[in-house]
Structures are given as C-alpha cells and as structure tokens.
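Before relying on records like the one below, remember that each one covers exactly one chain. Contacts with other chains, cofactors or solvent are not represented anywhere in the record.
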Amino acid sequence: MKTYVITVSRYFPVTHPRKGEETYFVEKIDNAIGATKCCNVGIYSPIGYVNIWPKIHTIRANYPFWEKRINEINEGKAVLSIRYWSGKPYNSKQVEICQLDKDSGIGLQRLNSADWILPKKRINNLAVWGHSLGKIIKVDELAKNDGLSIEDFKAWFKGYDLSKPMAIIHFTNFRY
C-alpha cells in the first residue's frame, strides 16, 4: 500500500513574523483526531498560556495533486502519514504523528482562490478569505480550523500563488 506524507511545522518558518516560535500543530492535530477530542485544551508555554484548538485540516497548494492522492486514500489504495521534522526542516528525520486511511474521515475540498477576497470585502465585520463549494468561508473560521490566528494565517499564506485553487485536506469528518 502506498504512503503519502504531509509534514507540518512545529515552528513558524523564517518567512513568518513569528519565526522560530512554536506552532503547536502536533498537539492541535492530536487534539482533533487523538484521544482527547477536546475543544479547549491549553498549555503553558514561555510566552504564556496557549490555546490548543484542534487543527482539523491543512491547506496546501496544487489542488489536482492532492485530489489524486486523497482519492487513492479513500479508495483504500494508500494512507496519509502526517509527520513533523525532528529538527531543521528537510535536514532532519521525520516523526510520524498518525496515519489516516479511508475510514478515518479524511477528505478534500477545493478552495477557489479566484474567489479569495483578502481583505477588501467584509461580511459580518470579518474578512472573507475563501469560497468553497458555493459556501463562503469566513477567515476566522478557516484560520481557527487550520490551527492559526487570523493574523498568523494571513502571514502564512502571504507568499502563495493565490491565482490557483488550494486543497483543504481534512483530518476529520468536518466539511465546510
């Protein structure tokens, strides 16, 4: 059986204003799919109390690439291994957090970047960031479900090519 890999960052990248600080993505993914299944777990860190809201999805470039892979997983031909780097990205071992298979709730939604309205248009006082399957997704909800604050979320995707559709890869049964 094939194994596809997604790595998540334990620390904000050097291109982010919070470079080097912990993202807590591992704990947030565990909170979403692990044994705790709690919506408001927190830990104390050097910067103070940190909410460990569940990270129920990740957003990636190259929708067609991920569509093919997620389809193979849902057909039972592959699994998705979610991992993080043990040290410096691309120069250290990967550590597996979990594997998702066809029975895990894994899913994919297309985030149509042609409809991204960041941050010009506002609905209910919140900037709209994306449009998927005919539904408007508010930036606060999309960011929170991706494990980030709105500010961190916008900074994370600042350098992405927003002219192409993105893939929302769901770790649970949740869909927009």
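Residues 35-42, 114-129 have pLDDT under 50 and may be disordered.
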